[in-house]
Amino acid sequence: EGSFILKFQFITRPWTVLGRAASLYTDPFIMISGTLTAYTLLGKLQKNGKINILEEYVSRLMRIVPTFAALIAFCTLILPWLSSGPMWNQVVTHHSEICKQYWWRNLLFIHNYFGFKDMCLTHTHHVGIDTQLFFVSPLLVLLLWKWPKKGSCVLLLLALVSTIMRYYVTYTMKLSNYIHFGTSIKQLFDTADNMYILPAHRATVYIMGIFLGFLLRNFRNVALTRGQLRAGNTLALLSFSASFFGPAVMGSIDYVYNPTDAAWYAAFAPILWCFSFGWIIFTAHIGHMGPLERLFSWPLFSLWTKISYTVYLTQFPIFFFNVGVTRTPENYGFFRMVFSLKEFVWIGLMSGVLTILFETPFQNIRNIIFKKKEIKLENVQKKIM
Fold this sequence. Notes:
The protein is mostly helical. The chain has helices spanning about 1-10, 15-20, 25-50, 55-80, 90-105, 125-145, 150-175, 185-195, 200-220, 225-245, 260-285, 290-295, 300-325, 335-340, 340-385.
């Protein structure tokens, strides 16, 4: 009984916001995806005056499909036969059966529209979201490039609509992006299926990323005064705190679910959260290297970016494998469970294998194909001149 009380007290502590607000962690990735896409496309527009949209789509698919398909094939056809355990059928075999039936949805990048229950490799819903947003991004970037004022108004309107959609669906369906005491599994699944995995509801931060990419491309030499920098840092810190620590009251054991609280959190927390990250990126880009900027510029992170996609793909199959093979009860230990060295090592190894066997070769093929096209174009231009 004493052990149970200690564990119960453990999960009521304020710092458990780290887990309760976990839905926020993926928003910066969506924003940064929009930033990189806009920055790249605007660079091509400034250089050539146009972009080959079909080429961008093909390049994107060559970048992500082979590795994605390899993982689906492994988890569907090979992983179920590698081991066994009390939970094996539930967490490994069950998912492989879903993939046998619905793998094609993943390769068409529409799997996030069918809910978690019938989704092959549920953790890859972000691949679907990001790909769908990418496919509309050239039109948004072209609009912003050709008509900056009108384009900005259109993008702001789309971001506003996405924000309103998050608020409305959360309030009317009594969803919750924040894990409070009493959150049911059904509520979590409903939140995912009706908001979290749908691109229209996640588009706000992607559009923020497009605006950030526009700023990075066009305002590289802007100079901020010390007062402006201090004001921006303060605003970013307040945004970070409001989005992350502000809703901590919803993590109290005495908290009673309120759809208005949940709707405000779902609508505005991602915006505030991503603004703080966007400010760090922008100030670093124009040369203001504070402690955070220097940390994020650490050379080791460049190495991490080489395997980040495969780390994202492999982590959950490894989690499920470890759950499936566990045969005896274990004492609960938060840090031991979260910071499992064995899992980190296996994720690193499997990510490296997937990168070497699939991602890097197809990246090289893609680079060869499109580099040849660039060389041919340059030769034609030289002959004309």
